[in-house]
Amino acid sequence: MRELVFELDYRPGWNPVAEALAEHPEATVRSLSCHVTSETLWRVDLVEGPADALDALSVAYESAEYFPDCLVTGDCEATSETRVLDREEGRLVVYCVWERSSVCTSVPHLALAHLGDGLLLESCQEGRSHRWRIVLSGDEPVGPFADALEAAIEDVGGMELLRLVEHTPGERSDESPAVDLPLAQRRALHAAIARGYYEIPRRVELDELAAELSVPRSTLSYRLRRAEARLVASFVESDTSLDSVNTHR
């Protein structure tokens, strides 16, 4: 089993969801499910952020000119449907489905064509950056897929390969974090640790750290809180040390 991780950077003005995320840096879009056939792509996304960001992203998703993950700059003549499945404070669940035309393509379709069936696809968007993680069960070469993706995205942005690692079933690679946080949240955590934000007493206050990172205080606070919540939830889910104690109470 192999894990391929890469990041796409969309150029300004091309992708409406990326533009809405760029205007609301505290928001993220994470795929909950992504499925692809040779002719169809459907996915469910979890959008997290404050209310004004959710409003902007709802409009972006419903844009008639936006087809999820399509890498064609012109009118690709694809047909699509977008539906909000759920909305509550701080989060939005969106369902998207689109059918290909003869000229459109996408990351999942390129992966299917070059890497074969049995792929696990995950993605996370922050600003104009779109990070993909593909788990491959086969041994197909990755080079042709990377070349095809680089050619497809040439007109809409750029691509950077981050890692390709082998996994043994039941083992976790030291190169992959236990919780796959969005890039902005990971950067915020690394900076906070490096500058002593979590030390007692603190060596840096939130305002100072935000200024050093050139982000609004509210954005940095939101990223740290979201990261902390995911890390704590992951710890509690995986910690079984109290099971025997609770059983004997």
What can you tell me about this protein's structure?
- With 249 residues, the protein is an alpha+beta fold.
- The chain folds into two domains: 2-166, no CATH class; 183-239, Arc Repressor Mutant, subunit A.
- Helices cover 34% and strands 29% of the residues.
- The protein has eight helices and eight strands, in the order βαββαββαββαβαααα.
- The chain has helices spanning 16-23, 51-61, 107-115, 143-152, 183-194, 206-213, 217-238, 243-247; strands at residues 2-10, 28-36, 40-48, 79-88, 91-99, 120-126, 129-136, 157-166.
- An eight-stranded antiparallel beta sheet has the order 4-5-3-2-6-7-1-8.
- Helix 3 (107-115) packs antiparallel against helix 4, helix 5 (183-194) packs across helix 7 and helix 6 (206-213) crosses helix 7.
- The model has no long low-confidence stretch (mean pLDDT 86).
Uncertain segments: none
Question: Percentage of helical residues?
Answer: 25-40%
N-C termini distance: 42 Å
- Strand order of the main beta sheet, please? 4-5-3-2-6-7-1-8
Largest sheet: 8 strands, antiparallel
List the helices and strands in order.
EHEEHEEHEEHEHHHH
| Strand residue percentage | 25-35%
Mean pLDDT: 86
For the CA atoms, what is the radius of gyration? 20 Å
Q: Count of helical segments?
A: 8
Looking at the structure, what is the overall shape? Answer: globular
Number of strands: 8
The total number of structural domains is: 2
Assembly state here?
single chain
Structural class assignment: alpha+beta
